[in-house]
Design goal:
It contains six helices and no strands. By secondary structure, the chain is mostly helical. Helix 1 crosses helix 3 and helix 4 packs antiparallel against helix 5.
């Protein structure tokens, strides 16, 4: 097996326990490129490449939006995009489960009472408005 620091075609790096961001960053650094240079070459904004390398997706609403960027970045670096994409999906899966909002239990009695009161108040307001308009 090749050593993990080898900078050739990177099958061995994808077997390591490193995060997606660490793999991408190490391969970019092995090519002595800046994030800005990569951004210009593959036309992905610097902020997304920075997010990927840092494994910090807090600034984006949906991490799946980054999946095509992972693939493009991996292809550009000469990595096999399929296993790296799978690793990315496994890494964000727990985040998606945590981020899913839980539906609150329905409050049947209170919601009916509240709707009835709101409807009655609106009807009273409309009747008063019509009455006042009719006085003019």
């Amino acid at each position: 097996m090749e050593p993990q620091h080898d900078s050739g075609r990177q099958g061995a790096d994808l077997q390591s326990p490193l995060s997606v961001g660490a793999i991408l960053r190490s391969q970019r650094e092995a090519r002595q490129m800046t994030i800005r240079e990569v951004s210009q070459r593959i036309r992905i904004p610097v902020r997304y490449l920075t997010m990927l390398e840092a494994n910090d997706y807090g600034a984006i609403a949906d991490e799946l939006y980054l999946l095509p960027f992972v693939r493009s970045y991996a292809d550009f670096l000469g990595l096999d995009a399929a296993p790296l994409s799978a690793r990315f999906l496994r890494a964000i899966a727990p985040l998606e489960k945590i981020a899913e909002p839980q539906a609150p239990p329905p409050a049947v009695d209170e919601s009916r009472r509240g709707r009835w009161f709101t409807t009655a108040a609106v009807m009273l307001f409309v009747a008063l408005a019509l009455y006042l308009v009719g006085l003019k």
